[in-house]
Structure formats: C-alpha cells, structure tokens
Amino acid sequence: MDINGKISQISTLADLDALKSELFGKKGYFAEEFAKMKTIPPAEKKDFAANLNKQKGEASALLDSKRMVLESEALKAEIEAENIDVSLFSTTGEGSLHPVNLAMEAIVDYFYGMNFELKTGPLVEDDFHNFEALNLPKHHPAREMQDTFYFKDETLLRTHTSPVQIRTMVKEKPPLKIIAPGAVFRRDYDLTHTPMFHQVEGLAVDGENKISFANLKFILEDFLTYFFGDVDVRFRPSFFPFTEPSSEVDISCVFCKGKGCRVCSHTGWLEVLGCGIVDPNVFKAVGYENVSGYAFGLGVERFAMLKYRISDLRSLFEGDLDLLEQFR
Ligand code: PHE
To answer: What is the rounded CA–CA span in Å between residue 92 and residue 99?
Structure first.
C-alpha cells in the first residue's frame, strides 16, 4: 500500500479522518497486516513486526503533520471569510442620530422656538457651581441624592445641568431665558439608572414679580404636549433646594393612556421633570437683586424612552444595532 502517496493526495480534514480509520481502525490496514504474523515463519517474525511498526510510526507522523497543515488552512479560510473592511462605506443605508440625541434636539428645538438661548457648561464642575450656589451648602442632606465622582480640590463630575444656571447668571444680566442640554453623572447603576445620562435645564429670569408659577405651568404644559402629543399634565408639590415652591411634573402614561399599567406602576402617571420658582438664595449667590424666575430640569433618556417606547434604559448605551437602525 502506498501510504505516503495516499496521504499526499488528501485535501480535506474529512478525507484525513477517513484515511486514518482505513489505516488504524479495528479492521484497518495495520490490523490486517499484524494479523498475518500468525502465518509468518518464526525466523522472519521479528523483522516483519519491526518493519510494520516502522511503517505505522511513519504513517501516524505523516497524518499528524498533514492534519496541522489542513487545520491551519481551514482557520485561514475562516478568518478570510469573516474579514470585514471597516473603512468601507455602508451599502445598507446611512447612519442616524442616536435616540438620545434625537430627543435632545427635539427638546432644544422647542425652547429655541420660544426664544430661549442655548448654553453649555463644563462636565467637570466645582462645588460652588454644582451645589453651593444652588442653595445646597456642604453637609446638606439633599446632596446625598446626587452623589457623584470627585476629583481633588472640590472638583467633581457635575450631577445635573443646574450649574449652567449659575454660570450664566454670574456672567450675564437679567432678563434671560436659557436652555442647557448636556451629560451629567451620578453614582448610580441599576435597571433605570446609568452613571452617565443627559439632562436639559431651563431657566428664565426677569424683573421683580415679572415671572410667576403661571408662566412656568404654561410653558411646560405646552412643551410636554408638543413633545409627547396628546397627554394630560399634572404638577405635584416637591422639593429642590434651588427652587421654592418646587414641583414635579407628571404626564398621563403614554403606554396605557392613563388607565394604569406596569410602566406607570398602575398609577396612570409618569414623572418626567422637576421645576419651580427660583429660590431667593440662588439669586443672592449670583448677586441678582429684584428679580424673579423659574427653572426646570429633565432627563433626556427618560424622554427618549417614553417617546420611542424603549423599555430598557441600558439598551440606549449598548450600541444595539437592532434598536439604532430603527431611527434611520
Ligand atoms: N437639577 C434637578 C435634578 O437634577 C432638576 C431641576 C432643575 C429641578 C431645575 C428644579 C429646577 O434633579
């Protein structure tokens, strides 16, 4: 049997396995050859066996090296088949804005149309702008709800977009109306919280007694029906150190239309933002006198999830193409 010739002709791993059992199997070539020992004259037995063992050893080594060659060829072919050219332009369609950006643009657009000026601030803030000037003195218990990531020297990742209120008022004279979108950070991580998320802040300031809760109520009701469509809006008393009075705002559940479901915890209402009349201590901290104003802040991820019916907050940050491609 020309074993070497047979091995050299093999080109697939399946053929290799077949030849292996043809040679080494229970009824294979070597088994049959060794069976012939019985019929061989005693004097020749030793040479016969030695020769056969040598053949067997060589065949086995040849098969092993052939297997290595075939396996590495197969791996190479597999890698080539899976190769993607990351520099190639997509042929399946154009990219799209992320749903969080889409929601943020829609929100900012509304207030832009209402004559609010767009402002941004640094993500790395100091204690004064993030807390102190917002009537959140050191050791105030309300700081605990906004625990964050600290650097040295009282600098920290901002916990909300409210410091942009302070930065603007310190620099500019009233009257002013601003909208401030951007990333914020908190030490939170669970089903409905990620350590980084986005907010949009609003602030309007004008002369004494010029801005009332009625102005705040009007603009937020108008904005929320612009953004969510036909929803009911309700104001609930609440607390923020930088507004007095403060309120949380709910919309009727967009999933069950207020009937009560899992998403709204069977209340029929969804909390969507915080707001209030600017606390006099905030104006004092920035050196404003004889003014009045309102402020509000909202979480963009929540707005995106409710508007686009996304059920898991984390899917917004996982680069999930099944989700993202729906926004093309
Ligand atoms: N900064 C508040 C928060 O992050 C939201 C808010 C802004 C409330 C402005 C009232 C006025 O929770």
So the answer is: 20
